[in-house]
User: What shape does this take?
Amino acid sequence: MLKPELLAQIDTAAAILRQGGVVAFPTETVYGLGADASNPAAVRRIFKIKGRPADHPLIVHLADQSQLSHWAREVPDAARLLASHFWPGPLTLILPRSQHVSDIVTGGQDTVGLRVPSHPVALALLRAMGPAAALAAPSANRYGRISPTTAEHVREELGDTVDMILDGGPCQVGLESTIVSFIGDTITVLRPGGIPLAALEQVLQQKLTVVDSTGSSVRVSGSLLSHYAPVTPLEILTSADLWQRACELEAQGLRVATLEWSAPNAVHLTSSGHSEHGRIVRSTMPADPAAYGQMLYATLRQLDSAHFDRLLAEAPPKTAAWLAVADRLRRASYRE
Ligand code: TXA
Ligand code: MG
Assistant: This one.
């Protein structure tokens, strides 16, 4: 049950959206920056606020699965099956778009990304907007930056450039939705995310192709390697190499933060728990991929604001369960 005060804010937000405004709202994955999907002028403002190129399509968020056929002109059985298993939830389906989807939303492509979020505030907002309402919404960060997982992060990213920010607490998933494309002959995972690959494969009873974030020919903004990047340069190292690299950088006078999940290397610390020069700060990350994913962006933001010179992340295990975390770390580590 949502508190009356929050319900009143949701009503205000819905009114703002109906009038063509732009509202940041919580989803279970990350915060979104929403506008009425059927109002091209409002959607255009999202691109302006984010500084996002106009040819990068937005996801259309729906209140429930029954609206799928309104926004997609073809819905294969497999897509329906995934929708009924995982919606509401962190899954986006890419399907041929219907005539109701404007070019502004899809960046001119003939396809549309659809998702029913599970966050109660997102669902209440969609329902308050009216029957069959849809929210076009990317993550509520400036272009190329880490997605926000709290309302405070949205404020840091976008300040008062948006008409309203709804606060629904910290996001439970913490990484963006899994994107599955039904365009072409094979079902393809375009972005690993909140729904693990194994869960999709189990429901579909088939193996899926995962498009490597370096090799995609589809125009997915999240597949640009410069995406999801912290300000502080980040390197990924095996646990065997991590501490040596940290000491090397420390010896050069740099302040270093590590993100470690396997908690090794304690042997390298002095008895007081510090590194030799006290310029290495260690963060212990969860050894469970879902828990790690939930706190990754918030941790990167926190380390960014502590102004380290370098972040060193221990490489995650090379298993399917860690795909989304590994993908986001790889993107975060990119430097031109
Ligand atoms: O969890 C999420 O998906 C969050 C929350 C707010 O729902 N949204 C999100 O949106 O991450 P955004 O715009 O930051 O990332 C959506 C990704 C982009 O990489 C975009 O290019 C891709 O989805 N996308 C959207 N429509 C597409 C389409 N028709 N074909 C291919 N990729 C598409
Ligand atoms: Mg994004």
In short: The chain has two domains: 4-215, 234-333. Residues 138-139, 147, 222 surround magnesium ion (ligand 2) (CB under 6 Å). The first strand starts at residue 23 and ends at 25.
